[in-house]
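Hi all, long-time lurker, first post. I run a small reading group and we've been trying to get comfortable going from sequence to structure in the token notation. Rather than ask abstract questions, I figured I'd post a concrete chain and ask someone more experienced to write out its structure so we can walk through it together at our next meeting. Sequence below, copied exactly:
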Amino acid sequence: MTGPIPFDDRFGEPDQLRDQLRLLLRHRVAMALGVALGLLGGLAMALYDAGTYSSTSDVLVRAGADPFDTVSVPVDNQISMSTEQQIAASAAVAVRAAQALGQPDSRAAALQDHLRVTNPAKSQMLRFEFTASAPQRAARGADAFAEAYLADRRSRNDAAVLRAVDGMRTQITALTRQTRKDWDNSADGAAVQSEIGSLRKRVAEISSRDTSGGDIVRRGAAPALPSGPGTGTLAVLGLAGGAVLGILLAWLCSALDSRVRSAREVQAALGAPVLGSLPAGPRADDALLTVGRTDGARAQAYRSLAFRTGLSGGAGCLLVVTPRADDSAGAVAANLAAAFAECGREVVLVDADPDAHGLAARLPLVPAEERTEPDPSLPEGGDLVDAGSAGRFALCRGGRTGRSPLTDVSQAMDQAASGTCPPTTVVAGRPLLEHPDALVAAQHYAGVVVVTGRDTRRDDLRQTGELISCSGVRLLGAVIDAGRVRGGAAVLRRVKPRLRTESVLPGTQPAGQHDTVTVSRG
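-- Answer (accepted) --
Happy to help. Here is the structure in token form:
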């Protein structure tokens, strides 16, 4: 018996980026959900900004530092714009603005949330930007904060002037008393009188200073359009963010998905090559037997699989199992038996899983009255299956009359050994992880084929490979079954033919053609 031919995995592209893209595209629902969430978020922001208006007022801040120390000090150094910016956004200014807008002082904090104070670079300007739900309210809010800042700065400057004037008046009073004591000394009295005159002149200068601290050079105007980006821009940004979110969700789903999704993953988990991939077959209520009954990509894939197992040209016993309960093992075993019969071999199909739906009820059996004479190759109590153009093969119902299914395997092999032309035996085994006793008759098996589906998990495949390797039987490989078409898809497949690549054994195709293998993307 020749070894299995390595399966050309279409998912085994050297470019890992394509591999990752295929993994992401399998979770289209997650990607669509991310895009929808991003679009909804963009539209929500657009609706929120659609009712928001911003207005701006500009204030020119004049130097109003210490009135006693203005000599030889540059104007730029007499004021700190960063400090003034913080004062403009302070709670004291917000309280004044609330009073100007006719709102209680408790609303000052809420008004601060709608204010943004900035200082343009290399300037003595403060820009008050106020946001409100109406254009007129935004303009009034910006002007109220600008006027409140100037009023606060004027009050601070007035307080500084008052403190300076009070201090100098105190000095004048003290000097006046000293002058009365030193009245006899004309020289000292004249000096004191001169100092008193200087102080009075200084008081007059300080009292006459402008304490307003700045001017409003631009008042807030009612905006005609809402603030922020437009609806189209926010929708595009939402779509872009949703695409990133969808890719992230798809990647998380792919990373957390424990099911095998490609031939490469099956081969890595099972530790054996992939013999073939079955495209999506008929609906669950259609006939189980495909080879010899219908023609198409699935029947050709079964024929290719029969060649790959190496049993098409000689006798042997092939065990077909699934990791968990699934009816795909019976379908693969029955069609492999038909493919072997099509090659002219005597074939015996053993149904070793009595817990599942019996294969006899789903296969076209030959009625007993149509049998012209007893068939010596037919096992005791067996049935004949009509595989159409592929011929006929024997079916042995496992576990009948309370016997163990493995007894039928041993009996079939013993009967075959006594004949001149040993048949090819295909056993539809029980789920290996639920019934490990399927490997008890390992000495009869020439090889084991594991059938995987869309819901097969990596851990189940690893455990299946370990059980088979411990039993000593040869693991030929795996078969990926894409399952059956659901609902109207089966009708669509019949009405609208699609291009398909038939699975052939390398070396059997006509000259000039290349080796091709049907790969299911299930």
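A couple of things your group might point at:
DSSP finds 14 helices and twelve strands in the chain.
The first strand starts at residue 53 and ends at 61.
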